[in-house]
Amino acid sequence: MAGIEVTALHKRYPDGTVAVDHVDLSIGDGELFVMLGPSGCGKTTTLRAIAGLERQTTGDIHIGETLVNDLPPAERDIAMVFQFYALYPHLKTRDNLAFPLRAEGLPKPEVHERVNEAARLMRLGPLLDRRPRQLSGGEQQRVALARALVRRPRAFLMDEPLTNLDAELRADMRTEIKHLQGELGATMVYVTHDQVEAMSLGHRIAILNKGRVEQIGTPLEVYDRPASLFCAAFIGSPPMNLIEVEVADGKLRSAGGLGLTPPPGLPRDRRLVAGIRPEALEVTAPGAEGSIPARVVSAEWLGDEIIYVVDHDGQRDVRVRMPPTIRFAADAKVGLRHTGGAPAVYDVSTEELVA
Amino acid sequence: MAVSVDEAVSTGPARGHAPPARRFGGRGRSVLEVVLLTVLAVVMLFPVLWMIETSIKENRDVYAIPAEFFGFKVTMDHFKDVFVAPGGGRSALSVSFLNSAVVAGVSTVLATVLGVPAAWAYSRFSVKAKKDQLFFILSTRFMPPVVIVIPIFLMYRQAGLIDSKLGLILIYAAFNVPFTIWMMKGFVDEVPAEYEDAAMLDGYTRLQAFWKFTLPLLVPGIAATAVFALIFSWNEFVFAIFLTSSDDVRTAPPAIAGLIGGTTTDWGLVAAASVVFALPVLVFAYLVRKHLIAGVTLGAVRR
């Protein structure tokens, strides 16, 4: 296993589109590193550049100590799992697994042994003699993972491997991948647009937008203190409420009068926006202490929680996460107050975290 | 299933009592459809039927008035005349059929060998002004051949390609390459690029990946495309008649056309030659009938 260093990566296609503007990544040995972002943010292009399937316009990629810029994919000693599983349709599972080993020219007994080992690890025993067409989506993806495993590569690259599976299977496979990665101590770069996948899998997450890295951090860091307005709006379901605030008399207040704990080091004379997680707000009975008057617009009953959408003076559609036991009818007059610690505060003009 | 909710939930007696007008409309419509299709089929197929009949009639039956549909004496003499010269040996017509086979075959192979990799490249790679390039390639097929036949004739005279099979092969290949690129690009688009990506990670070069994994999956598409190209080259008339003159080089379409004229026309021979000429096309068209429909409804093949 090896770490991966991506330095000042830039990819521009002949037709002029810039897929990756500027990306620096430093991925540790044995780390499960997730690249998260909306479609077109450059995450897949970055991954394909690491794999050698795309040649970057400028920038360097190191895998371990090796500068791999000019190495073809095969010589980079990496394995990749695709969203579309890319199992060879004319080969049985067994031969699909053996294929990369045979391509390497390994002796037969070793190929056999490694295939069996990977099959055992991914529990593919009964599927070994079937062709991809005879496998379900989940089974195909397990074969694809096993196919990556047999190589014993220096790093695994995963390109949205779970996107085509249904929700239940996806959760299972997520657990499986995480378990496998831990057991093998494998370096894994995982691309996804699904924040739940990113949060649950990643040791660290890089959030990409428009070909640039917006933030790199552990799932908790990314969740608690999104580095930019983009990250704030992207992470969390529902995402942060972005509420315009101003500093007055050492207090932080929204235009509608909602009082917030001010974080230290707030800049002066700037237009500011506070990012407040839905769980850091509370819907109360009208007139409760510290609350401001608000109105329930709608409520999403999710079973384990209720998401209230409330309006208050000058601020529309504030989302509040509440336990299912506290119920208000739509259109009810209620109170709204902030219960969490100091919120993340952003400068409106730079869109970056300032405090 | 075209069952509306109302129909599906209606109970016993109400069932099957569709509005009378609609029921009549449905039956009347299908009768009309059958009549129209029959008329169309007769109009389309009668010339073919007549050609086949003429090819097996004796010459006096061919000219008989009123025309004989049934009960004439069947002869295979005309078919013999297609292949055997009056004094024995190969007839000029049989040579022209051979020429057609060579010209159509070689030009199709050439167009496929050039067009398939090009289609793959256009499908897989990011190319500067790809759309414009593809449009330009397609635009070479916009003009009817007769528009450019004089410039081509002059160029060929300079290059010494007049009245040569090579000349015909080249011009047919030039016409078939754009077609091959466009049709094959549709097929390549449907083969996921991930196969090649995976193969490259497994240790193959890009070309090997194309050759070993994508190409086998393209075989049905290549076959269909090649048959279209083959039919085009086989049927082509305009270039063939302008660019060739000697019997050694002439392909079948101008050779058959050459039978008509002079003082008398041996219609039996013309018909028999036409039947022989049409057979390969019919066979190939039958083989690719599925793709033929897709090709006619343009856009069904290409995504």
From TrEMBL, chain A:
Residue span, ABC transporter domain: 4-235
GO molecular function terms listed in the Swiss-Prot or TrEMBL record: ABC-type transporter activity; ATP binding; ATP hydrolysis activity
GO cellular component terms listed in the entry, alphabetical order: ATP-binding cassette (ABC) transporter complex, substrate-binding subunit-containing
Protein source organism: Micromonospora inaquosa
GO BP field: carbohydrate transport
InterPro entries per the UniProt record, alphabetical: AAA+_ATPase, ABC_transporter-like_ATP-bd, ABC_transporter-like_CS, ABC_transpr_MalK-like, ABC_transpr_MalK/UgpC-like, Mo/tungstate-bd_C_term_dom, NA-bd_OB-fold, P-loop_NTPase
Keywords, in A-Z order: ATP-binding, Cell membrane, Membrane, Nucleotide-binding, Translocase, Transport
Top-rank lineage group of the source organism: Bacteria
Gene3D superfamilies, alphabetized: 2.40.50.100, Nucleic acid-binding proteins (2.40.50.140), P-loop containing nucleotide triphosphate hydrolases (3.40.50.300)
Protein's name according to its UniProt entry: ABC transporter ATP-binding protein
A Pfam family recorded for this sequence: TOBE_2
UniProtKB/TrEMBL annotation, chain B:
Protein name: Carbohydrate ABC transporter permease
Keyword Aminoacyl-tRNA synthetase: no
PANTHER family tied to this protein: ABC TRANSPORTER PERMEASE PROTEIN, MALTOSE TRANSPORT SYSTEM PERMEASE-RELATED
Region Disordered, residue ranges: 1-21
Subcellular location: Cell membrane
Keywords: Cell membrane, Membrane, Transmembrane, Transmembrane helix, Transport
Native species: Micromonospora inaquosa
Matches recorded under InterPro entries: BP-dep_ABC_trans_perm, MetI-like, MetI-like_sf
Low complexity compositional bias, start-end: 12-21
GO biological process: transmembrane transport
Membrane topology: Multi-pass membrane protein
Coiled-coil residues: none
Domain ABC transmembrane type-1: from-to ranges: 97-288
A GO term from the CC aspect: plasma membrane
Transmembrane parts of this sequence: 31-52, 101-122, 134-156, 168-188, 209-234, 267-288
Family the UniProt entry places it in: Belongs to the binding-protein-dependent transport system permease family.
Source domain of life: Bacteria
